[in-house]
Amino acid sequence: MPIKIPNNLPATNILESENIFVMDTDRAYKQDIRPLKILIVNLMPVKSITETQLLRLLGNSPIQVEVDFIYTESYVPQHTSQDYLTEFYGTFAEVRHKKYDGLIITGAPVEQMDFEDVAYWDEICEIMEWSKSHAYSTFHICWGAQAGLYYHYGIKKHAVSPKIFGVYKHHLSVEHEKLFRGFDDEFYVPHSRHTEVRKEDIEKVEALTILSEAEGAAGVYAIANLAKRQFFITGHAEYDPLTLKGEYDRDVKAGMKIEIPQNYYPNDDPTKQPVMKWRSVANLLFANWLNYYVYQETPYNLDELYAANDYMYYI
Questions:
Q1: Which residues are listed as membrane-spanning (predicted)?
Q2: Disulfide-capable partner of 218 in 99, 162, 168, 251 (CB 3.0 to 4.6 Å)?
């Protein structure tokens, strides 16, 4: 089934070249199918790159998906033009009256700042509070995961050195978890961050369950609340094959002290083509979330949902 996106979104050409079935707004209106409504809070600097990464995965599903993008009003992005934002994005004020099957909060390049020092922190807090009654399931990624754990459960992030940077081996911490249905016993996911949340802090919160962990420095990977309505993912399964290379080359060019991404280049040789080990992981992760925790749970009429089930957030 297709993913419904705004007319003329630049990601369309890339996705179509990869045989991802996309449908523009005009065509979707002619179909008598209620798509899943997903809101993406895109906090990454170059919006189009993150759009393509996420849409590629959301579109690899038999479920029709309708996506809205928003950016923060309290901090206007510096690497995406206002014309682009005006055409393809909205603001929280423009969507706050709506209800969504799912919400995705992306990572952001602000992890070394205290949460309260981030220019748009108050706005993100408002969105996360709003999500309790307006989004059935919320999927937090990297900094978004750290922000969600801090806001909802008071779990702090901690600086690490050196940077957690590379492709790490992971395993499941619980059995028969639907989010990881079809995963191998061991699987690989990229990480790129200067901070971490600690296992011992998460285990003190009875409302949270650790679903997956990585070997070595990457630590805890996936956390869920008991109602399985909030997921916190510390890595970047959505990354393209060359995303880590781009970050590494950028930092080397800037003269920054940066280690070669772990388990990424053959023989740790950055002159060689990186090996992608997480493509199937990414597709399964997002397909499972959409199917088992969004599509299978939300009613046809979203307005009927929250009067009956809002309490589930507070279990």
A1: none
A2: 168
* Catalytic residue (choose from 140, 152, 191, 236): 236
| Helix or strand run (H / E) with residue 282 | helix 279-288
Q: Is the peptide bond before 162 cis (omega within 30 degrees of 0)?
A: yes
pLDDT in tens, 19-74: 555 555 555 444 446 789 999 999 999 999 999 999 999 998 888 899 999 999 99
Please report which confidence band the pLDDT of residue 136 belongs to, taking 50, 70 and 90 as the band edges.
Answer: very high
Q: Is 181 annotated as a binding residue?
A: no
Host H or E run for residue 164: strand 158-172
* Sign, Cα dihedral of 117, 118, 119, 125: negative
**283, 62 Cβ separation under 8 angstroms:** no
CA–CA distance from 99 to each of 57, 68, 144 (Å)? Answer: 22, 11, 20
Residue 142 known to be catalytic: yes
Residues forming beta bridges with residue 189, ordered by sequence position: 168
Is 133 annotated among the ligand-binding residues? no
Cα–Cα dist 275/277, whole Å: 6
Catalytic residue among 111, 142, 152, 170: 142
- 238 is an active site residue: yes
Query: In terms of C-beta distances under 8 Å and separation of at least 24 residues, what long-range contacts does 75-80 make, across chains too?
Result: 75/119, 75/120, 77/45, 77/47, 78/45, 79/45, 79/46, 79/47, 80/45, 80/46, 80/47, 80/48
**DSSP bridge partners of 186:** 171
Report the run of H or E that residue 311 belongs to, with start and end. Answer: none
Q: Is 27 labeled as ligand-binding?
A: no
